[in-house]
Amino acid sequence: MKGIILAGGAGSRLYPMTRVMTKQLQSIYDKPMIYYPLSILMLGGIKDILLITSPDDQPLFKKLLGDGSQFGIKLSYVVQEKPNGLPEAFVLGEDFIGNDDVCLMLGDNLFYGDLTFFRDAIKAQKEKAGGLNGRVFAYYVADPSAYGVVEFDKNTKKVKSIEEKPKAPKSQYAIPGLYLFDKTVAKRAKALKPSPRGETEIVDLILSYHNEDTLGVEMMYRGLAWLDTGTPRSLLDAASFIGAIEERQGMKVACLEEVAYRMKFITLDQLQKITADLPKCSYRSYLEKIITEEI
Asked: What 8-state DSSP symbol labels residue 120?
């Protein structure tokens, strides 16, 4: 399983913050936004990850994350010249995907909670359980009309219908920015035609699997937090949420060095060396506390 994080886009809803720096490099409490989706892929056991960025922002991402070796992962980069729709991620990543399954995560989505559902979905995707070649996730929301909505059979986990921002939703389940697809996804993405707004649509890509009866759905557990951080208000809400969790528990969310160590991507000795190179700050102090507890 390979991973792709789509971190391009204009971020127009966050202007003027995004005039000089993309939204995925804006902070959510004490870490750049990109740390959060990257940590989710790592917690899913995914170590080979492609980061899709705008031309201007790619050097900043490379300065922040490098090649990923400090986290025990492999990071690759590709430029998206302009936003042409989410499916373009698979066109740009065609060579990267090769013959593997792939997980796409949007760079402005944040999840917090039990990720067993994600690891189980990755396992099912690898095994093509139920003859399914693509999977979306279902998240219960109060107002589904603001999202892509999925209707599905809870027993077979097969999708019945998908609608984009319907006026009369057929279910309460929204589709968040997390997707699993097989190796045919790049070919499917290249065959899509732009919608009236001039972009290819992720819904059309998903429907290509649904029309073949090979699209499944995985329910996200109740209590899992999903935050979309594309507006100033949602960015503030996300920062407040993460801040409250970290202050109450004394444990950081999406600390990539800790995730790498807990997932056994790096050793304790490597964690010590990484931590020693960090400037004196609360982030370093947190890692030093982990090292002390592990020795």
From this structure: H
190: tokens are: 């290249």
Cα–Cα distance measured from residue 61 to residue 188, given in angstroms and rounded to the nearest whole number: 29
Cβ-based neighbours of 196, under 8 Å, separated by 6 or more = none
Global confidence as pTM: 0.96
Helices 282-294/268-276 angle, 10° precision: 150
Taking the C-alpha atoms of residue 227 and residue 241, their distance in angstroms, rounded to an integer, is 10
Could you tell me the CATH superfamily of domain 2-143+173-266?
Answer: Spore Coat Polysaccharide Biosynthesis Protein SpsA; Chain A (3.90.550.10)
CA pair distance 158, 247, nearest whole angstrom:
40
Cα(128)–Cα(124) distance, rounded to whole angstroms?
6
Which DSSP symbol is given to 4?
E
Greatest alpha-carbon span in the chain:
59
Residue 280, CA distances (Å) to 66, 251, 277, 283, 285 in order: 21, 18, 9, 8, 7
Tens-binned pLDDT, residue by residue, of the chain (295 aa): 999 999 987 788 899 989 888 999 999 999 999 999 999 999 999 999 999 999 999 999 999 999 999 999 999 999 999 889 999 999 999 999 999 999 999 999 999 999 999 999 999 999 998 899 999 999 999 999 999 999 998 887 889 999 989 999 999 999 999 999 999 999 999 999 999 989 999 999 999 999 999 999 999 988 899 998 888 999 999 999 999 999 999 999 999 999 999 999 999 999 999 999 999 999 999 999 999 999 8
